[in-house]
Amino acid sequence: MTKLQSTKISLPENLRRDMVELLNRHVVLLTDLSIQTKLAHWNVRGPHFIAYHELFDELGGRLMEITDMVAERAVTLGGTAGVPVQEVAKRTTLPAWPVEQRRDAEVIRLLAERWAVVANSVREAIAASAETDPDTSDLFTEVSRQLDKDLWFIESHLA
Ligand SMILES: [Fe+2]
Questions:
Q1: Which of 17, 24, 48, 106 has the smallest number of CB atoms closer than 10 Å to its CB?
Q2: From which domain of life does this come (predicted)?
């Protein structure tokens, strides 16, 4: 069991450890989603190229900000934030991004699928932290709202 940094934050260590674990699980998902969004940004082709290329760039930028917020809550609670990319690959629950798939309509459908996995997992994290650490829960609420909004941007391009 990893030792946490000491802090004057008045939450018991076992509770902080649970929150750090929950937060890092989402750092992993968000990191994978960021990379997958970049792969979509780079490789997409088709009649909607420029709209999708630019949308994916904006989405990726917001993901970076969100990931930073989640990771920094983990260190705030005395934990270690994030994991090396090799660990991300082992721990992520997202399917791998099919880099050979370039067709715009298919790329946006695949991105919506993965986006929803992360957004819905964050929604579960709101409830999982609500009783024990309302601040972490509030952070997940903010992240959830942003991910849902961006899912709307993505889904609005689907027929
Ligand atoms: Fe770019």
A1: 106
A2: Bacteria
Ligand 1 centroid vs 67 CA: distance in angstroms? 19
| Closest listed residue to residue 111, CA positions, set 57, 47, 65, 50 | 57
Domains present along the chain, CATH in parentheses: 13-92+101-155 (1.20.1260.10)
Amino acid letter, 28: V
Task: Quote the ligand 1 centre to 71 CA distance (angstroms).
Answer: 24
- Rounded distance from Cα 103 to ligand 1 centre (Å): 18
Could you read off the pLDDT of 37-77 as tens digits, one per residue? Answer: 999 999 999 999 999 999 999 999 999 999 999 999 999 99
Residue 12: CB atoms within 10 A of its CB come to 9
pLDDT tens sequence across 85-109: 999 999 999 999 999 999 999 999 9
CB 150 within 8 A of CB 62: yes
| pLDDT exceeds 90 at position 15 | yes
